[in-house]
Design a protein that fits this description.
heterodimer; A: mainly alpha; Non-ribosomal Peptide Synthetase Peptidyl Carrier Protein, Chain A; 0% strand; B: mainly alpha; 21 helices
């Protein structure tokens, strides 16, 4: 989780991702951030986030992104 | 058989009667027969193409689903013995195999669309190049383009992609699947539905509900009003203006933008209201395609409100798959390490955005005007994205202004006019001509001409038609405002008698003020040709 928070902070250093929610609704993460985030997550955690998982629910907070990584890792 | 013809009204009444009177297990059968009768009535020559897409999609879907089940069964059966790495490797190799099957289906499905809709366009381009280099010109055969081809192809290909992604399981009953592809209210102009939403809706038995029936009837009547009173009246002026571009410049270009906005809004949203209304009368819920698009504060927001099912189709099946594909991920890593983080991270997303909008333009038609239209939308969206930090700063500094109603209206009007301007490419068709006409808005000062005594009737419309159009637009504005929180038809669902009475009133207005009958051939929907 710490590694994920580091990646998120590198995108927006001014946001406290450990407490922030509704990242999509609030407009914190846009399509640019999401694609960069996916590249970083894939490289760091050795998973492949497929296009079908790119839905707002999976990217609404650090927790939901972490849950997605764990799910993909377990499959 | 057009939606606005008397024969369609009879056909619909008969379908609804049989649908509710026959045993419920036959309901989807009634819809299938009705759908094929409706499509046959559009032209017998089209039916082979519909059957081709249905058969190809059905069998590809079955193969995809069977392969996915085999994969899941194997993993479940060997969960204890396989290591995590082995499991991942197996899943990855199976995914590749399923992708190859999907690719075959997509090539066969989109192949027909490309062959029929785009051959002439691409061959024309080749011919222009050949003749430019002194080669001999050649004749391009004109091919038949089946009605609704883009819509049912996209819906079918979406089904295959969802199967590949394991979001749904394949429909095993061929006839039930055929209904999903051909459902008559939506086959001509959408909305582009997902199997996960519509598949069960179509085949589950539905009990007659007075609320749903009357709400649906009201929406159908409202759709006819938008189409026949507003869109087809506005079309009279639009047609005159684009047929006389040699004289109708300057202010008349602005007039065309406004009239065509009224036409396309009435035509497309009216058509969708009729589609969703008919479906609701049958107890079937379809996805919404519009959400007050002219209240959009930006182009990006506009595209979340206008033709929603097409927008989400391109986002889900083109933009994100392209953005997060293996190749693009490598490109992203490379560009960031070689060009710096700021530029590097933008390139892949910008590339995917440009491809998506290029295809969106091409989806609307095989012509440079549609491609330029798509790329102009893309350009504005990308520029807005770049200027967003600056814009946020402005909004923060000028909170009083940015929170005001005036500023809200200003942004909505700006988006409205910009989208209208781009949309005029659809009408003028010729790209250089359109650009020169846009230029004439700044060089030809003929405002006085339009607002003179005879000016208001100088563009093909008489005063009566202008009054009808103006009153029609006001009524739509009123209805939209009343249905801001809950759409009018939903509010009327619990008041069936009132809904039916209002529907009768609206249909009377359509009969009195609608543009139809001798001398009019306007009843075709614009999006039907896409």
């Amino acid at each position: 989780m710490e590694k994920l928070l580091e990646i998120l902070s590198s995108l927006h250093p001014d946001v406290d991702f450990s407490n922030a929610g509704d990242l999509i609704e609030e407009g914190v993460l846009d399509s640019l951030d999401i694609v960069t985030l996916i590249t970083e997550v894939n490289n760091t955690f050795d998973v492949q986030i497929p296009a079908e998982e790119v839905i707002p629910e999976n990217f609404s907070s650090a927790e939901t992104i972490w849950a997605l990584i764990q799910k993909l890792d377990e499959e | 058989m057009q939606f606005s013809s008397a024969i369609f009204v009879l056909f619909l009444a008969l379908t609804i009667l049989l649908y509710y009177l026959l045993p419920k297990k036959w309901q989807w059968g009634v819809l299938l027969v009705a759908s094929y009768v409706f499509y046959l009535s559009q032209g017998v020559q089209y039916i082979g193409f519909l059957l081709y897409t249905t058969v190809v999609t059905y069998f590809t879907g079955r193969i995809l689903s069977a392969r996915a089940k085999k994969e899941d069964d194997f993993v479940e059966a060997n969960r204890e013995t396989l290591t995590k790495e082995e499991r991942k490797a197996f899943r990855a190799s199976e995914k590749k195999a399923r992708f190859r099957i999907l690719l075959c289906g997509l090539v066969l499905g989109f192949g027909l669309l490309i062959l029929l809709k785009y051959t002439a366009f691409f061959a024309g381009g080749v011919r222009d190049i050949v003749t430019a280099f002194g080669g001999a010109s050649f004749k391009i055969p004109s091919l038949l383009i089946p009605l609704g081809l883009s819509f049912y192809t996209f819906q079918s290909m979406g089904y295959l992609i969802d199967l590949y992604r394991k979001k749904i399981t394949a429909e095993t009953n061929f006839l039930k699947f055929a209904l999903f592809v051909s459902f008559f209210p939506q086959i001509i102009q959408g909305p582009i539905s997902r199997f996960g939403d519509l598949g069960k809706e179509l085949t589950t038995p539905h009990t007659f509900s007075a609320g749903d029936f009357s709400a649906g009837l009201f929406r159908v009547a409202y759709g006819f009003f938008k189409k026949l009173v507003v869109a087809d009246t506005a079309m009279i002026g639009v047609r005159y203006l684009y047929e006389h571009t040699d004289t109708q410049q300057g202010i008349y270009v602005i007039l065309l933008i406004l009239l065509y906005t009224a036409e396309i809004y009435g035509d497309f949203t009216g058509g969708i209201d009729i589609t969703i209304g008919i479906s609701r009368m049958l107890g079937i819920r379809l996805a919404e395609n519009f959400n007050r698009p002219f209240s959009a504060q930006s182009v990006k927001e506009y595209w979340r409100r206008w033709h929603i099912t097409m927008g989400t189709w391109f986002t889900d099946y083109v933009f994100y798959p392209l953005s997060v594909s293996g190749g693009m991920q490598k490109f992203s890593t490379w560009s960031r390490s070689h060009l710096g983080n700021a530029v590097g991270k933008r390139l892949p997303v910008y590339f995917a955005t440009i491809v998506t909008w290029f295809l969106t333009g091409l989806w609307h038609g095989a012509g440079w005007n549609f491609i330029v239209w798509g790329l102009l939308n893309c350009f504005v969206i990308l520029i807005s994205q770049e200027l967003q930090p600056l814009w946020n700063l402005f909004l923060k500094k000028c909170q009083k202004l940015s929170g005001s109603g005036f500023f809200y209206c200003f942004r909505a009007a700006r988006t409205f006019l910009l989208m209208g301007l781009f949309r005029s490419l659809d009408v003028y068709k010729d790209v250089p001509l359109t650009f020169s006409l846009w230029g004439s808005m700044f060089t030809t000062w003929n405002w006085g001409e339009l607002f003179s005594a005879s000016g208001l009737t100088s563009f093909g419309m008489n005063l009566w038609q202008l009054l009808v159009l103006g009153a029609g637009i006001l009524l739509i504005l009123l209805a939209t405002n009343l249905g801001k929180k809950t759409p009018l038809w939903d509010r009327l669902a619990s008041r069936s008698v009132l809904a039916v009475a209002l529907s009768a009133c609206i249909l009377t207005l359509v009969l009195v003020f609608g543009s139809y009958g001798v001398g009019y051939d306007a009843a075709d929907f614009i999006y039907g040709q896409f």
